Fold these 2 entries.
Entry 1:
Amino acid sequence: MNASFKNLVSSALTAATAYGVAITGLQGHCKGDDATVVRAKLIGPVGEFYGVKVLASVGKGNASGSVKLDADAPKYEAARKALQRLTKDILGEKAKADGVTVPRAVQAAFDAAWAMAAKYEQAGKIAATALAKAKATAV
């Protein structure tokens, strides 16, 4: 059965709207939580949805007492990605790899600088060099 283009667009928009509503609700449940706590709250339901067992970690130090998805499960990769995406979407701007929130004015300046550098070949190297020079002269 072939769905029409219009029906597929409608289905995608309905799903996106439902996802947005669910994320907003989950943000309320996770208000004030950091990424570790949000992940801990999500791992059970995500594992259950994908049929992936949640296992106790047997590591030492920080890993002891934590839980992880069963990497041998057939749908492990889908569950892992879903857990990662949900955590990121729930945390929104707080989900930074290094825990730093970039002020809007700083981000706007870097966006403008990148737009300018992106016009050149080797834009990444140009931007990195310009940033290094700016840091060196600011001291």
Entry 2:
Amino acid sequence: MANILNILILPTYSTLTLAVVDISVYDPTTPSDTPAPALEIDVPGFGIVNPTFVMEETNIYNSTDLGITTAGNETSIPDGIYCFKYTKDVSVDTSVEKSIVRVDKLQERFDEAFMRLDMMECERAIKTQAKVTLNTIYFFIQGAIAAANNCATIESQKLYMQADVMLDTFIGSNCGCSGNNYLVNFH
């Protein structure tokens, strides 16, 4: 039986961490002196890193593990398209490659805007328009994820940028709850 390599990138619901799970099926007769597994992560804007990877475990990485910061100075991990390559034994050239789009920072901003909407006192028409705008932004975020999942990286980046611009505008306009917006759009 040969090793069947596979990894899974799990959501951590945090801008500070990235989770990679080894879901491979390993040949139990593999000698214990085989080389250690290697994980290669192409971090958008920072290049390729090779963090420590433990077989058959959930591996949690922060900005220091990904070569973005030094220990004690951890920060949010950037959004963007991440490419992963997991290799167990380079001598037999077996590996698995995956890519994902990370949208955690954008999603965090979206969540904040969404929560502000429910707490504001707005005219009904303005609140309805704000909900439509938020649904549109959410649609673009999901579109960016779907495009990345289907190897359409350029489309994914366009959809991400559109969601980001729309979210900036939405937040910058105080989420549409100004008397001027009501007068211009609904009178």
